[in-house]
TrEMBL record:
<keyword id="KW-0812">Transmembrane</keyword>
<feature type="transmembrane region" description="Helical">
    <location>
        <begin position="144"/>
        <end position="163"/>
    </location>
</feature>
<dbReference type="InterPro" id="IPR002823">
    <property type="entry name" value="DUF112_TM"/>
</dbReference>
<feature type="transmembrane region" description="Helical">
    <location>
        <begin position="318"/>
        <end position="340"/>
    </location>
</feature>
<feature type="transmembrane region" description="Helical">
    <location>
        <begin position="109"/>
        <end position="132"/>
    </location>
</feature>
<feature type="transmembrane region" description="Helical">
    <location>
        <begin position="169"/>
        <end position="188"/>
    </location>
</feature>
<feature type="transmembrane region" description="Helical">
    <location>
        <begin position="435"/>
        <end position="454"/>
    </location>
</feature>
<feature type="transmembrane region" description="Helical">
    <location>
        <begin position="360"/>
        <end position="381"/>
    </location>
</feature>
<keyword id="KW-1133">Transmembrane helix</keyword>
<feature type="domain" description="DUF112">
    <location>
        <begin position="20"/>
        <end position="441"/>
    </location>
</feature>
<protein>
    <submittedName>
        <fullName>Tripartite tricarboxylate transporter permease</fullName>
    </submittedName>
</protein>
<feature type="transmembrane region" description="Helical">
    <location>
        <begin position="20"/>
        <end position="49"/>
    </location>
</feature>
<dbReference type="Pfam" id="PF01970">
    <property type="entry name" value="TctA"/>
</dbReference>
<feature type="transmembrane region" description="Helical">
    <location>
        <begin position="61"/>
        <end position="82"/>
    </location>
</feature>
<feature type="transmembrane region" description="Helical">
    <location>
        <begin position="466"/>
        <end position="490"/>
    </location>
</feature>
<feature type="transmembrane region" description="Helical">
    <location>
        <begin position="200"/>
        <end position="221"/>
    </location>
</feature>
<keyword id="KW-0472">Membrane</keyword>
């Protein structure tokens, strides 16, 4: 079993005082940022990108491992205690979790979320350990046409299938592709969207883009809302931070079912864990109707357990898709892809061969991060809730300062700060009109890959467009994509009909 021996070697690399400290700091930062409404693990990673540029790759990626899962659990704390989920991935678990909190069972809801996050993440990461190398081997069969199909699949799936509005999703995709085109076209040497500004000849730094859209855009949006009454009320979370034997037995099947929903969605470019978490919630609610003692609507523990496990299972297998295929299936995965590139590593089929030691150490860091988060969050979840009492004016001013400092330190460029401000205003407008950020990030990252793959495919085939659909892999990808779009259209029409 080469995977097990490689993983053991990875644990040996991570088990140093510095690396374990990086995992702990990442877990703390991820949870802290995730607790705050409107933020999340994607923003936490984005803020850390410029600040970790001086760290060694293993230390930085170990920290990101803690942030990756810590942000997901932090999202749920705000949702359970205030009914204001830190991110959309925590909405489903907040429905019953907040009802449990209102009935005096907040500690049990938080414990259910923590254990569910742990189980879902652990099971998914185990699957990644055994199957990611096989996925990478299969991906070596990909040529230019297959990579172009994969990029198109990600573009359309995230923009239309998952977004509430296909128009807004496509608008975000167009914005991302436009930003990706800024600079000099390498094959022809032609300037594109530079407007004669020399500093734009090399394009816009991806770190500047992510920090501006995720962090500064949210800061400006929150600043525009300061002074408005906040209707959310923070509920008390004192009490036993663990589950009784009966509660554990009640939650265990839901944790396993939720993991089953989340695992396959991690390798689908669905923009995050919203779909599997709601599928899990719907399944638990349907099963509960068959029981006479159903607590759904009053605070059902299964309604927290299933979605929480589904969300973390999706995050776990999303890491596998990122490492093996170079395919970011969510906004957080897209930012992590930038982190890899920052250290000269390109996730994809050759990553396990070229940077195998780092990859296996990262996978080991994920296991350690989940154990650390479980130990921290079972007793400390009520303490994290105190972050919700920090005045927003001070909180978001600090985030803006950290974002500006990080961007400036990365390249010592005032121009980058001006570009960050401009993109931050763009992020505010997008936030104001509900244009999703995920399609923008995916387009910025995969846009160049799609362009180069399309050019290579056409050149190698003598400009024959049929080469784009000539292999079984491309046919399968496009077929699944068309089926997903048709399903999304039918679902929306049913939703509109039900409203009327």
């Amino acid at each position: 079993m080469d995977q097990l021996s490689n993983l053991i070697t990875g644990f040996g690399d991570v088990f140093t005082l510095n690396n374990l400290l990086f995992v702990l700091v990442g877990a703390l930062l991820g949870t802290a940022v995730g607790v705050l409404p409107g933020l999340g693990s994607a923003m936490a990673v984005a803020l850390l990108l410029p600040l970790t540029a001086s760290l060694n790759p293993l230390g930085a990626l170990a920290m990101f491992a803690g942030v990756y899962f810590g942000g997901l659990f932090g999202d749920s704390i705000a949702g359970i205690l205030m009914n204001t989920p830190g991110n959309s991935t925590a909405i489903a678990s907040s429905l019953e979790g907040h009802r449990m909190a209102r009935s005096g069972r907040a500690p049990q809801a938080l414990a259910t979320a923590a254990i569910g996050a742990f189980l879902g993440g652990i099971i998914a990461t185990v699957l990644v350990v055994f199957f990611a190398p096989a996925m990478a081997d299969a991906a070596t069969r990909f040529g230019p046409a297959e990579f172009f199909a994969l990029a198109v699949f990600a573009f359309v799936a995230i923009s239309t299938v998952v977004s509430d509005s296909a128009v807004r999703g496509l608008a975000g995709l167009a914005i991302g592709l436009a930003i990706a085109m800024v600079g000099i076209d390498q094959p022809t040497g032609t300037e594109r969207l530079t407007f004669g500004v020399r500093t734009l000849f090399d394009g816009i730094d991806i770190v500047v883009i992510t920090v501006a859209l995720l962090a500064l855009g949210e800061v400006i949006y929150q600043a525009s809302r300061i002074g408005r009454p906040d209707e959310a009320q923070l509920l008390s979370s004192g009490g036993r931070p663990f589950l009784s034997r009966g509660e554990f037995r009640q939650a265990l099947p839901a944790w396993l079912r939720g993991t089953g929903f989340g695992v396959p969605f991690g390798v689908i470019p669905a923009g995050g864990a919203e779909v599997p978490t709601f599928l899990s919630y719907g399944a638990e609610r349907t099963l509960a109707r068959r029981r006479k003692d159903s607590q759904f609507g009053k605070g059902a523990i299964e309604g927290v357990a299933g979605p929480e496990a589904a969300g973390n299972a999706t995050a776990g297998t999303a890491m596998g898709a990122l490492l093996a295929l170079g395919l970011p299936t969510s906004a957080t995965a897209a930012v992590l892809l930038i982190a890899f590139r920052q250290y000269g590593m390109q996730p994809g089929p050759l990553l396990f061969e070229r940077n195998g030691e780092i990859v296996w150490a990262l996978l080991a860091s994920l296991f350690i991060a989940m154990v650390v988060l479980l130990i921290l969050n079972l007793p400390m979840a009520p303490l994290w809730a105190n972050l919700l009492k920090v005045p927003k004016a001070y909180l978001y001013a600090g985030i803006a300062l950290l974002a500006a400092f990080g961007v400036y330190v990365a390249a010592s460029s005032v121009t980058d700060l001006l570009i960050m401000l401009a993109l931050g205003l763009l992020g505010f407008v997008m936030r104001r009109y509900d244009v999703p950020i995920a399609p923008v990030l995916i387009a910025v990252i995969l846009g160049p890959l799609a362009e180069y793959s399309l050019r290579d495919a056409m050149v190698n085939s003598g400009n024959d467009p049929m080469v784009l659909i000539s292999s079984p892999i491309t046919i399968v990808l496009y077929t699944v994509l068309i089926a997903g779009v048709v399903w999304a259209v039918i679902r929306r029409r049913r939703t509109v009909s039900a409203d009327f």
